[in-house]
Structures are given as structure tokens and as C-alpha cells.
Specification:
Length: 341
């Protein structure tokens, strides 16, 4: 690559329409601390085909998204997820390889050598060995000191008068492949209540779009422990105008409980730097999620919420920040090249 020296490289962040993927790209781009342009990626059915068939092309994109991918080409592209990998490779091809590509998650063995840096979370399992690959604990996210500070200000009046310590529960739910049964939910309620009894203080709860009726089962199990929550947020599409206290609970709680079904939620809660308890009963999690939970516990970012498990006295090693880790690798490996140094 022959770049002329520049103070600020032109950076594109390819934002997948699926929030869980698009938010990872945005988080890494923001962590760089440089100006960047978002390119929104909306997909058509063709995108469901394997990348081997799509290749380095825009075939999976809607016409409106295609119209945004045009010259002048950027110096650096940040993308996440299988689908956006084809778009990133197309950009590099059109720029005559005069563009660095950063990809989050494995783009597929056949495409690995097309990227300058690939960040693969450890829980994704084995990946083809290549010097352009780095491994991370958890997923990139946008929860940093500033967002938590803002949430603390916003939710202080709501939560500050509750008896301390505050124990927050962040609820996920069933996934496409794994159920969150009523019995699992009741058990989560019982175990959460037992933890609150040990710690004292107040219990605050937030649910999410996948929680549904499982929230009622959690509250039913909680009743068995004679613990009553001080605050409950019930997610509802009809009440979408009501502000979700998710960030407020992460910011204000002294200890956090989270269900292990969401890579994003587990990573974000562990970004708090506070004690975290993960609910991961038998049959609830797939292989990737089980590996993530195990890794978070092994590295003291969290511990399992389970009967008979003593509260760990070991503090977390810090705030989990895969986005910051990836951004630092970009600064070390790629930005000097883009600056012509």
C-alpha cells in the first residue's frame, strides 16, 4: 500500500442493519477517537447466500445502500459480521488495494487474508492461524465512562433513595435455539432473591424484547424468597416511548446479575467494572455462550449465579473493553501505515 501522508485518514464504518452487529462496528470506530463516516448496510435476500457465492461484491445490498458505496474510496474500513465482509472486500478491490480493512468476527477462512486486521472473540472458537488475527474477550460495545456518567446523572433521582447496596438484574430471554423456560426463570428469581438476602439492599430489574412472560416467572420465584423488587421495568413494544433504564441500572447498581444468553449484554455489564453474577443454568446456553461465560468467570470479570456459590472476594480486573483493545491494535498496526510513516 502506498499512501501519501495525511493527518486524518478517511474512515468508513459499515453499519449492519442488525443492531447487535452494527453497534460493534460503531463502538470500535468511536474508540479510535478519529472522524469517521457511517455507511448503513440494508440487506436483500441474496445476502443469505454463503460468502463464497457472494464474493467481494455488493450483491447482498439493497439499491439504496449500494448507492452509498462509491468513490472516493476511504483509507480504512471497519466492518463486523459475515455479510459486511463481502462489502469491505469489494471496497478494497475497487480501491486497487489502497485501503486497510478491519473486521470484527471471523469473515470466513476463504476471506481471512483479504483483511489487514481481524478481531475474533475467543468464544467463537478456533480460527485459521494468521498474523492479521487478534483475539478478544467478549464483544465490542459502546458503553464507556462517558455513557455511564450520563446514565448516572439521568437515573440518580430514580435510584438514589433506594437502600444500598443496589443489586441490578438485566434480563434477556429465549433465543432461536435455546428456551428460557418458566422454571429457569423462577429459579433465577429464587437465586437473585437469595443473593439480595446475603448482600442486603434493594433489588432493581430491567427486561428486554426477548424476555416476555419470563419476567412474571422471575418475579414469582423472587416472591418465594420474600424479597420484593424496589423497581421493575417491563419492556413493551406498545410502551416503547418509556425510557429503558438499562444503562441506568448498569451505572447505578453496586452489583449486577445478567442472564448469559446475550454476548452483548454480558460484555456490556462487565464493562461496569463491578461484581457481576451470570445466570447460566444447564440447557439455557449454546456452545459459544457457554464458552463466553466460562471465560468471563475464569478472568474474574464475573462469577456464576448458582445455589451454594459463595460471593467472590476477588475484584474484577477492570472494565471489559474489547472495542478499546481493537482500536489500540488499529493504532499500532495500521495508522502508521496510513500516515505514511
Amino acid at each position: 500500500m502506498n499512501k501519501t501522508p495525511s493527518i486524518e485518514p478517511v474512515i468508513w464504518a459499515l453499519i449492519d442493519e442488525r443492531p447487535g452487529t452494527g453497534n460493534q462496528t460503531r463502538a470500535v470506530a468511536k474508540s479510535l477517537g478519529l472522524p469517521f463516516e457511517e455507511k448503513k448496510l440494508n440487506w436483500i435476500r441474496f445476502a443469505e447466500l454463503p460468502n463464497l457465492l457472494i464474493g467481494a461484491s455488493l450483491r447482498g445490498l439493497s439499491e439504496s445502500s449500494k448507492s452509498e458505496i462509491k468513490s472516493p474510496w476511504p483509507d480504512l474500513v471497519i466492518a463486523a459480521g459475515r455479510r459486511s465482509g463481502s462489502v469491505a472486500r469489494y471496497i478494497k478491490k475497487q480501491s486497487l488495494d489502497d485501503c486497510c480493512l478491519v473486521h470484527i468476527m471471523n469473515p470466513g477462512d476463504s476471506a481471512i487474508r483479504d483483511f489487514d486486521l481481524i478481531a475474533v472473540p475467543n468464544h467463537d472458537g478456533a480460527v485459521q492461524d494468521n498474523p492479521n488475527i487478534m483475539r478478544t474477550i467478549g464483544a465490542p460495545h459502546g458503553i464507556g465512562n462517558s455513557s455511564l456518567s450520563e446514565a448516572r446523572v439521568r437515573w440518580h433521582a430514580e435510584f438514589s433513595e433506594f437502600e444500598k447496596p443496589l443489586i441490578g438484574l438485566v434480563l434477556g430471554g429465549a433465543t432461536k435455539r435455546r428456551p428460557f423456560t418458566a422454571e429457569m426463570a423462577r429459579e433465577l428469581g429464587r437465586q437473585s432473591g437469595d443473593l439480595v438476602k446475603q448482600l442486603g439492599g434493594s433489588f432493581i430489574v430491567t427486561s428486554s424484547p426477548r424476555t416476555g412472560s419470563a419476567l412474571d416467572a422471575v418475579l414469582s420465584g423472587l416472591t418465594n424468597t420474600e424479597i420484593e423488587p424496589a423497581f421493575v421495568y417491563r419492556w413493551s413494544l406498545e410502551d416503547s416511548a418509556i425510557e429503558n433504564p438499562y444503562l441506568g441500572i448498569i451505572a447505578m447498581a453496586d452489583q449486577l446479575i445478567v442472564t448469559g444468553d446475550s454476548t452483548s449484554m454480558c460484555s456490556e455489564v462487565c464493562a461496569s467494572g463491578k461484581p457481576v453474577h451470570i445466570f447460566a443454568p444447564e440447557g439455557f446456553l449454546g456452545d459459544k455462550h457457554r464458552r463466553l461465560v466460562a471465560e468471563l468467570c475464569e478472568n474474574n470479570y464475573a462469577q456464576l449465579l448458582a445455589p451454594g456459590v459463595e460471593i467472590s472476594a476477588t475484584p474484577p480486573p477492570g472494565k471489559l473493553d474489547a472495542a478499546g483493545q481493537i482500536a489500540e491494535e488499529i493504532r499500532i498496526r495500521l495508522l502508521p501505515e496510513l500516515d505514511g510513516t
